[in-house]
Amino acid sequence: MIKELAKSIREYKRASILAPVYVIGEVVMEAVIPFIIAKMVNQIKAGATVAIIWEYGGVLLALAMVSLLFGYLAGNEAATASAGFGKNLRQDVFYKIQDFSFSNIDRFSPSSLVTRLTTDITNVQTAYMMIVRTAIRSPLNLIFSFVMAYLMGGRMALVFLVTIPVLGIGLFLIIRKAIPLFRKGFPMYDAMNESVEENVRGMRVVKSFVREDYEDQKFDARSEDIRRIFTKAERLLALNGPLMQVCLYGVMLFVLSIGTRTIITSQGTALDVGQFSALLTYSFQILVSLMMLSMIFVMLTMAQESAERIVEVLREKSTITAPASPVTAVADGSIAFDHVSFKYSEDAEQMALSDIDLQIRSGETIGIIGGTGSAKSSLVQLIPRLYDATSGSVKVGGVDVKDYDITALRDAVAMVLQKNVLFSGTIKENLRWGNPQASDEELMEACRLAQADEFIRQMPDQYDTYIEQGGTNVSGGQKQRLCIARAILKKPKILIMDDSTSAVDTKTDALIRRAMKEYIPATTKIIIAQRTGSVEDADRIIVMDRGRINAIGTSRELMKSNAIYREVYTSQNKAGDHDED
Length: 581
Hints:
Elements: H1 2-6, H2 13-45, H3 50-98, H4 102-108, H5 110-153, H6 159-201, H7 203-208, H8 212-238, H9 240-266, H10 273-315, E1 335-342, E2 353-360, E3 365-370, H11 376-381, E4 391-396, E5 399-400, H12 406-411, E6 413-417, E7 425-426, H13 427-431, H14 440-449, H15 453-457, E8 466-467, H16 476-489, E9 494-498, H17 506-519, E10 524-528, E11 540-545, E12 548-553, H18 555-561, H19 563-575
Helix pairs in contact: 2-3, 2-5, 2-10, 3-5, 5-6, 5-10, 6-8, 6-9, 6-10, 9-10, 14-16, 18-19
């Protein structure tokens, strides 16, 4: 785990090394200062002149300034190292997620990935800062102070050797019980974030059904679970404080009582006042170091589970991998499914798709229709390798999709989903996701084809209108048309429209389909729809039923031969279309 995390240090290795080096200088100065003070006290006791006292004062001031400089440099380098490490680690996790297949993302869940990118990395970053500074400073300060205490106080310093095992055993028992609680607690953060994400996305539904109180109660329950588990864990960690206090005051009591008695009984021969004052200072430094070490253990205990969760993402292998010598050009938009079966996870008992055998010619317009759960979307997601087929093969342009360079394959395929996403930015910026080099004229042409130009012209800033995150300031129909325009700009070899005109009226739907037929005639167009009117003029229509192809044919052929298509067509034409923009 440490080896995996250390890869994210990279260009901040220098700062990570310099911080401990400066810490060593700071600790050495802090160890020397009490020794100089002890000598000065003895000089004063022996009747030193003011000049000698000033001399000692100058040395102490110089040592204090050097210590301050080392402390500043150590803090600066530690901050640089930890912040840089956190930045790199966040980038590494984010880049790793970009390479994930949908199967990988389904395994972790989006809310869990967000928690790992934020809370978990913050915990690890804080722990790293403590490691490169405090975790170096405290042991070194402990060792130097103990050596100096032994030199000044002799066998009296051995009392610290008694406290260290007591603290060590106590901390071990606390951490042993606290770690499992943290391990249970972090997945609860995932669940709470998932609840928040779900609530925000579905806010319109929540308000329309007046379910705010229910959502409040659900969030409170999740929040209470987190409070309960972390309270229990932090109560255990809080025992660290009393344990430290007992050791601290026990040692101070011992040093004060034994030291005072030794000075009085030996009349300063076995232990003089200067040595005793230095011994007290070193005692305090040793105990502070022990206290800091205990705080480090607490932080590392909290960070350990976060680190494991981060490394779990970094070690995850994408289920979609590129071949050693990938094909980098897609010849045409032909598609072939050769006895393809597919399920979303290895543990799934039922196949989403079963024995799909299908040939689609380049430039053909294919309609796909079927009931909810008939696996229409599952079928088309195999074409750009959003998922891989469990068995059988999918070919595009005569080549197995697994043999393509993934970027080349996906550049040749454009998908427009029913719930497509617009990103925060201007309309122009969103459209250029389809083609970053597209001119303003090309943007406008694509929008005219997608029947979006008219409503864009009515906006105050037209094509420079700012789209809020998720496209919340445009209607469902407007969002779909912008997404269609974005896909058209890509000029793909294959265009997949997954129920992407469900929010527009039938007239607009027909205009969009006619424009695509004229503008990109060589592109293979696959249209998934609930309305038979959206696929009626397709070259062929595929009827899906329970993950299988039930029938293939033109609208006229299916009306004669297929009960499912005929039933859908008849019910819709009797009811009439009541779609809204």
